[in-house]
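Posting this for the archive.
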Amino acid sequence: MSMTNDARRRPQGLAAGLLACLALMAATGARADAEPAPAFKLTLGHYHYHYHYSDQGAGTDFNLRWRKGDNSLWLGHYRDPVFGGQARIGGDASLDLGGGWSLQPSLQAATGGFVGGSVNLQWGSQWFGLVGWGRTNLRPYYNLNFDPNDAITLGAGLHDEHGGLWSATWIADDRLHTGQRHLHLSGRWTVAGQRVLVDLLRKTGQGDTGPVRAWGWTLGLDGQTLFLRLARDPKQNFSGSDATRVSLGLRF
């Protein structure tokens, strides 16, 4: 996919902000596995949108998540000049079924009447596979994970002996007949006490402005206390907009 010079632009001051965040993470001496993970995670996100030759402004969101064991609850709020604002709440869990099988349900709701949920069935520990299914009531919802929600999911992965995680996940619309598909190739490993995350995304399908074939990516640095994510999502939510996302988070 070719891109113009304008389409490659980033928000002014982004590089300086990222360097400041990295320096702060180093100064805290956060270590990924030094102690049990805190129960709360606060994430602040900034979304810059670009449509062809014009900038569409920016969106912001916050998300507060509480986690205990394999169960979590979260609430958040998103706003941008075009979509407006939307508050949301949700939860997810992992239920051990025995024999290496687990069931992973999730449920979320948002202002405007949106309700959605999903369920995954996973098998295995070191090597694992999963299959999932999601449904919504199709009410207006600003999708911040950018994967199709009314979809089936197939995945497989490996937890290696060094604590790394490697996986492939395929998510495909099975309701709206758009042919929208996401393929994620992901890796997570530890370097100098910090977890490094890389996710490569291939997306295809019918979008708002025609067929979409594009590559996206996410890079992350994850410490025990602070974490940082930088992502590029072309044709975000299969629209005509390209999105650059920066997220900074705190565990406490």
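The longest helix spans residues 14-28. The CA atoms of residues 157 and 178 lie 27 Å apart.
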